Amino acid sequence: MSQEKFDAIVVGAGPSGNAAAYTLARKGLNVLQLERGEYPGSKNVQGAILYAKALEEIIPDFRESAPLERHIIEQRLWMLDDSSYVGMHYRSEDFNEDRPSRYTILRAQFDKWFSQQVRDAGAVLLCETTVTELLRDESGRVIGVATDRDNGTVYADVVILAEGVNGLVGRRSKLREELQPESVALAVKEMHFLPKDVIDARFNLKGGEGVVIEGMGTITEGMTGTAFIYTNNESLSVGIGCLVSDLAQTGRSPAGLLEAFKNHPSVKPLLAGSEIKEYAAHLIPEGGLKAMPELFGDGWIVVGDAGHFVNAVHREGSNLAMTTGRLAAETVADLKQRGVPCSKANLRAYTKRLEDCFVMKDMKKYKDIPSFLHGNRHLFDLYPRLVSKAAQNWFRVDGKDKLTKEKEILTSFRKGRTLSGLLGDAFKMARAWR
Amino acid sequence: MHIVVCIKQVPDSAQIRVHPVTNTIMRQGVPSIINPYDLFALEEALRWRDQAGGTVTILTMGPPMAEDTMRKALTLGADRAVLLTDRCFAGSDTLATSFALATAIGKIGETWGPPDIVFTGKQTIDGDTAQVGPGIAKRLRFNQLTYVAKIDSLDPESRAITVERRAEGGLQVLQSRLPVLITMLEGTNELRRGSLDSALRAARAEVVRWGAAEAGVEDTAKCGLRGSPTVVKHVFAPKPRAEKAQIIETAAGPVRTQADAVIAAIFARQPGIESDLLRLARHS
Ligand SMILES: Cc1cc2nc3c(=O)[nH]c(=O)nc-3n(C[C@H](O)[C@H](O)[C@@H](O)COP(=O)(O)OP(=O)(O)OC[C@H]3O[C@@H](n4cnc5c(N)ncnc54)[C@H](O)[C@@H]3O)c2cc1C
Ligand SMILES: Cc1cc2nc3c(=O)[nH]c(=O)nc-3n(C[C@H](O)[C@H](O)[C@H](O)COP(=O)(O)OP(=O)(O)OC[C@H]3O[C@@H](n4cnc5c(N)ncnc54)[C@H](O)[C@@H]3O)c2cc1C
């Protein structure tokens, strides 16, 4: 047992834990951060797009020292069938700004950098230390943690659970339920190494510009999921993810899906000649608001993926992680300053902070999306095929008059799905989006 | 007892990649680890300290960022860490390295008491020369016990030490008198984890940083590139030879029968293997 008592213990050194530990340490609290990985970032998998705003709120001048790869100037959204894609691309010179809003990063490097800022701010970080359980007093209040090290218990006024999607500590301590297979996606990702000039030429980029490609369609074989390609300086992050429940039902392996995606005729040339340097798999909490666990209690508070803070539609996670980490820390620091305990009643201020900003507003706006996507297989299979066929019909100049083409396209949609089905989908989509 | 353990920070060889075009080794972005042999040396030092009392000092010559790996060694329970870091040490070969380390060990002795044992690993996984340990011993005029698999006994009173040395063709049991320098083999002991308290202490410990002057190095011409007669001219990856590899089409039939066929072919080519394997299996 450690004799020392800390103001706060942060479990995990991902974006949410680092944001929390940094904010607390900067406010002068005595913080202990525990990370099971060999170093921060060693266990983390992310595409990865960094959304600048969330980090700016924590470290305003992060651009001066953070390891950033490319800033994003172009977004490509692809709807794929087996041989084609229908795309919406948006590229703008306006994204070449002084303070770009999105960057590609390599999580291993980024987390290391963030962690250095945390330690420079005064927090104590122990790596290769796994939290096994929460410690409670007779009243049930959380008073510290047990770790897997010898004499491994340590005490604090509050424990911030930033342990990521699995939430093992929370589950073991009965703060939350088991993860449901329909609220988590399993994503696999590869890093494809290519020289910088090849990436620049292939994606039409110069001087640190980057592209994001997000794809959906028959690549997931009807399962709810998406694929992505992100440009880093000298590599491409290529990945695909599907709901665990869908994977279980179909028996498909994510690795097989990724292989198929990489071999899609629209994707293959982008990767040609690359060398794969790492392969990783990770869960993403995609159940939205309805899958969120309890977020706080006597002496504990949950942030980031552990709290299911992910906006799956917009592929946002790390920004919610950092924002919730910061808000939890501000809540705790505020209580500390007022000299009141981190009781359940007092920690309620955390939800208020979440509701006052984009975090809860977005979680609420998208609360029906997960069940909508999950219950509508044709979104990932039938529609992409129909749209692609329609586009092909439209663009082929084959002597047919345009009116006939329009009619054919309409009929193909009506044949694929009944009119009421089409209308119903549109209606459900609109309602879920609202 | 005062034990000094020399620890080198090396690139994690499991994560080194070879540039696909130039065929050179890419060190950039490769995480650093403690040279694996040195961990066995450290564990042995900690054990004997725990048994006989005293302190363990770890010593590294390397760039400032080597501090991270030193902190890891402190987590395991070392008492203090000295990082020898100075631009003038850059580019050292084994001669210059053993000069700098031996000088620093002299200074460590002046500061915290003369060492009774200096440990090094058998060799590193990047330079691989196995010369630094003996080089230090020679300069300090210590007896050297190389390729040590096990320390059988150590008596701080009579200052006698008995070790097992793995040599070609057998095991030697050697006895010597302290102070000695030991180069440690791999797989000799099981590494500890370090308690929460020692991890906390390590996270906050000051790593002592010495430049050449603080370490007592007077003649910097013997250091770094200037003091290194050896030059690594070219490092490259040997071309993988494909003729031994065989691609087996799994579509051609059940995997099991194919595997059996492959194994049968190997046994036919090298008749001794089957009986060797059986013997090994029986022994384990
Ligand atoms: C690919 C490559 C090839 C090289 N070939 C040669 C060569 O042929 N000749 C030559 O003179 N140099 C060579 N060098 C340089 C040499 O490796 C290092 O510069 C030298 O500092 C240490 O030698 P070593 O790594 O072989 O150590 P070894 O002699 O193999 O190391 C034995 C032990 O000495 C201790 N030790 C070694 N270095 C340090 C350190 N910096 N700090 C603390 N303890 C340490 C450790 O306990 C280690 O286990 C080479 C370097 C590389 C990268
Ligand atoms: C393939 C993929 C692509 C993604 N792409 C993006 C993207 O482009 N943009 C984006 O914003 N988000 C993206 N995300 C989501 C993003 O990665 C997460 O939302 C974010 O990492 C959550 O941060 P966190 O700190 O809550 O959790 P994590 O980053 O998972 O960190 C949790 C940390 O806690 C540690 N830990 C866990 N249990 C314990 C324990 N018991 N004791 C000690 N330590 C423990 C873990 O080792 C880990 O370091 C992606 C995710 C995946 C899988």
TrEMBL record, chain A:
Task: Tell me the superkingdom of the source.
Answer: Bacteria
The family assignment reads:
Belongs to the ETF-QO/FixC family.
What protein is this chain from?
A: Protein FixC
Q: Which GO terms describe its molecular function?
A: FAD binding; oxidoreductase activity
Q: Does the keyword Iron apply?
A: no
Q: Which residues form a coiled coil?
A: none
- Keyword Flavoprotein tagged: yes
Briefly state the protein's biological role. Answer: Part of an electron transfer system. Could be required for the formation of a functional nitrogenase Fe protein. Probably accepts electrons from FixA/FixB and reduces a quinone.
Task: State the species of origin.
Answer: Telmatospirillum siberiense
The cross-references to InterPro entries, in alphabetical order and at most eight, read: FAD/NAD-bd_sf, FixC-like, FixC-like_C
From which lineage does this chain's organism come?
Bacteria, Pseudomonadati, Pseudomonadota, Alphaproteobacteria, Rhodospirillales
Q: Name one Pfam family in it.
A: FAD_oxidored
Which SUPFAM superfamilies does this one have? FAD-linked reductases, C-terminal domain, FAD/NAD(P)-binding domain
Q: Which Gene3D superfamilies match?
A: FAD/NAD(P)-binding domain (3.50.50.60)
TrEMBL record, chain B:
Q: Where is the Electron transfer flavoprotein alpha/beta-subunit N-terminal domain?
A: 22-219
Assembly information from the UniProt record? FixA and FixB form a heterodimer.
Task: Give the similarity note.
Answer: Belongs to the ETF beta-subunit/FixA family.
Transmembrane stretches in the record are none
The UniProt function text for this chain reads: May play a role in a redox process involved in nitrogen fixation.
Record's SMART domains?
A: ETF (SM00893)
Report keywords, A-Z: Electron transport, Transport
Highest taxon listed in the record's lineage: Bacteria
How is this protein named in the record? Protein FixA
Q: Which InterPro entries match?
A: ET-Flavoprotein_bsu_CS, ETF_a/b_N, ETF_b, ETF_beta_N, Rossmann-like_a/b/a_fold
Classification lineage:
Bacteria, Pseudomonadati, Pseudomonadota, Alphaproteobacteria, Rhodospirillales
Q: Which GO terms describe its molecular function?
A: electron transfer activity
Q: Which organism is it from?
A: Telmatospirillum siberiense
